[in-house]
Task: inverse folding
């Protein structure tokens, strides 16, 4: 769902109105970053994993330019999904109850593992008090159903699909653990970023898309039309949106830099990253500044 801003900008014709021809390229999750490095795409949504920061330390160049998804109270799209029987029996109630559980995360050097660590810390625990199991997101749903894991961190719509299948219960969202957490960002290749006018026009259309997203899911404006557009784009049943949570997308595209700094320093602390990255050479929010100057403030 983090891609909703781009999908809406395309469907509503905002890219075309800015004179930008956009071609969405579908890539395997395991090659998202390498596709960017190879210059096969100009724009990419990236989760803030340890490998992203490691690449920056190795001299790989790209620019963080806008938000893609974050977690705020009442605006969250990633959940701790606990086996239904563990909730119903009262085995899992508070953060301290994470002790001894098998918890599925996409990787140990991921933002998902970071949020698990923060949840366990709030319960007086460390990650050593649970067993982290590395699984892909679709496999997590199956693992919950077969009781191979006790808890999985799932983005929408998989979290809702796990609930609908009877495999799990949404226990807490990321924002319940780390309010304001920056999950993913939009990045430009240096070559695309250097085309200032084109990049500004792309960003202007994108900001219009995320404002439509906010209109629909925060203010209930044109919600049905927006749901239909996104359901078609993501091959989902429209009815699923009635039960889903929705990630936060700042309507001006703003990025929570403090959140990025915090997760980066956690990677260093855990040994997943050798040293912090100087974000001042990576983050460039001038593109969203130009877009907001053109569009005006979001009401």
Result:
């Amino acid at each position: 769902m983090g891609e909703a801003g781009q999908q809406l900008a395309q469907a509503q014709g905002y890219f075309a109105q800015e004179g930008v021809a956009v071609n969405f390229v579908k890539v395997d999750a395991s090659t998202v970053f390498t596709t960017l490095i190879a210059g096969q795409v100009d724009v990419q949504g990236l989760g803030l994993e340890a490998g992203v920061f490691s690449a920056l330390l190795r001299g790989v160049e790209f620019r963080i330019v806008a938000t893609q998804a974050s977690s705020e109270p009442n605006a969250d799209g990633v959940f701790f999904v606990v086996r239904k029987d563990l909730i119903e029996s009262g085995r899992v109630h508070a953060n301290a109850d994470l002790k001894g559980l098998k918890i599925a995360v996409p990787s140990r050097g991921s933002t998902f593992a970071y949020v698990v660590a923060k949840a366990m810390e709030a319960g007086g625990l460390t990650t050593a008090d649970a067993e982290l199991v590395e699984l892909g997101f679709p496999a997590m749903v199956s693992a919950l159903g077969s009781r191979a894991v006790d808890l999985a961190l799932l983005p929408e719509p998989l979290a809702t699909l796990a609930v609908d299948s009877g495999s799990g219960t949404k226990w807490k969202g990321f924002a319940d653990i780390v309010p304001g957490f920056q999950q993913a960002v939009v990045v430009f290749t240096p070559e695309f970023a250097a085309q200032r006018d084109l990049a500004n026009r792309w960003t202007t259309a994108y900001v219009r898309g995320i404002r439509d997203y906010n209109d629909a899911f925060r203010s209930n404006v044109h919600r049905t039309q927006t749901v239909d557009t996104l359901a078609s784009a993501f091959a989902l049943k429209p009815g699923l949106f009635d039960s889903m949570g929705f990630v936060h997308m700042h309507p001006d595209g703003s990025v929570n830099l403090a959140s990025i700094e915090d997760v980066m320093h956690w990677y260093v602390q855990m040994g997943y990253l050798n040293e912090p990255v100087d974000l001042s050479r990576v983050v460039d929010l001038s593109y969203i500044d130009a877009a907001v100057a053109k569009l005006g403030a979001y009401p």
